[in-house]
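FIELD: query
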Amino acid sequence: MPKRVLITCAPPNPNGDLHLGHLSGPFMGADVLRKYLVARDVPVSYVAYTDDHSCYIPRRGSELGWDAHTTAFRYTRRIEHSLSLADMLPDYYEHPHREPRHDALVQEHFLRLWESGVITEQEMPTPYCPTCDEFVYEAYIRGNCRFCAAPSDGTYCEECGLAQEPGGVVEGRCFTCGGQPETRTAVRLVVPLAPFTERLTELFEKSPWRQRVLDFCTGLLARELPVVPVSRVADYGIPVPLDEWKGHILDTWFSGIFGYMAATAAHDAALGHPDRWRETWRDPETELVHFIGFDCSFSHAVLWPSLLLGLGEYITPRYVISNEFYTLEGDKFSTSRGHAIWGSDFLREAPADAVRFHLCLTAPEETKSDFRMSDFDRTVNTLLVEEWEGWAASVVGLLAKEHGSVVPETDRATWPAAVRALAEQLPGDLAGHLEPATFSLRGAAARLREAVRTAAEDLRRWQESPADRAEASAVLAAHVELLGVLAAVSGPIMPTWSRRTWQQLGRVPGFDGVPWPHQDQAVVPAGTQIVPEYRRMFQPR
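FIELD: result
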């Protein structure tokens, strides 16, 4: 068991609210893993931050008539509200504009990399818009990926994940004026990755990352690692802390790893340990887990490990867990076209646990997947209302009728074989899907669905056939125990249902939820007094 697990989630741009596509990916994965590890008593921290310095912020602000700081502040509040409604808030969510530690740590590590020669300066071809009279980067240039031809902004392609610099996108257009930029030579600060080839190869060979991320990394090694620009001519962002580089800022794709450090430091400081973050990031027993969309593979799996290796004192990621795109009714989520379901709107009308369960069940882990409202309604109406809570209500009602809501004393060997097996095996099965090395939201949700259907079918068969009192007691004791096990192991995915059901079973949840079952202990022991009437949480749609 690791000494500590540190979980991160790719930082969102505060240029809009979160839609279901956002929530289905890194936010969901990071939160479920954190809740699982807490239930297993593994020391864990989940930190994140908002990408306040992204160039998408002033671009969005100009469309709304807001300045960049106002834009970042207002949308960060929306993002945090959506995460709160979804029960997905990290342990600490850092705000760079409001917390000076963020910029200070970025600049501190930049200077160390500069002084050690990891960062150098180099002339590079850079897109320049003659109409706007400025270099155009990332959010301000749009064209086609020069590797896969998919539509792409100026830094990384969302489809293939490859860096567009140096060289730029094909047939690029300036976002501001629509003109075609020309290529000019500019001196920029860069990180040549070739010197890290051997150490990255070793890292990739021993890392149990998602296969597409590993294939991406080995493909880069075969192609030859690029020189990565990390500075831009701009007035919005973290300034390069060198006198001769005034008017240049540091690319957020460079600084992101230090944002995770700043968030860790802020969390530890809030807990009264302002210096503990360095120990965490230097301890080889800390397991660092990144949750990302695949389009962030280059930064999290290649560039940032190189920076960490260049600094020489920090851990590199043990796990990089990626996801693919989540589409809406067969088409890509699109804010500009109004083709989106916003989390803060949807979570006001649908229970968070229902949304969480469905997003896990349909998670875009290895391939793209799709959200369809008809599928969601089916998940709620058939699985959660009829099968899941229908079974739970029957178990609680029958126990009240037959035993006054007190769990009877029975011999476990007399329990129905299928239910006893489920109660014994379900914790291990779920753990197999929730450990970082084999993490699968889809697998975990599907196993829960299968368990409920098996239990509901067993209870129906028993109710349809006569049984003596001893057999009835054994059946009810088995199903109550399974309900308790299900309440415990579903907690990482359905935390509210988990806590409510645990309380209805006469148990007291902890501050962070329901503990994971121990193999040699009954979850709901004989003699436990449970609430006589099951309180339903889900309603038909």
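FIELD: remark
The chain has a mean pLDDT of 95.
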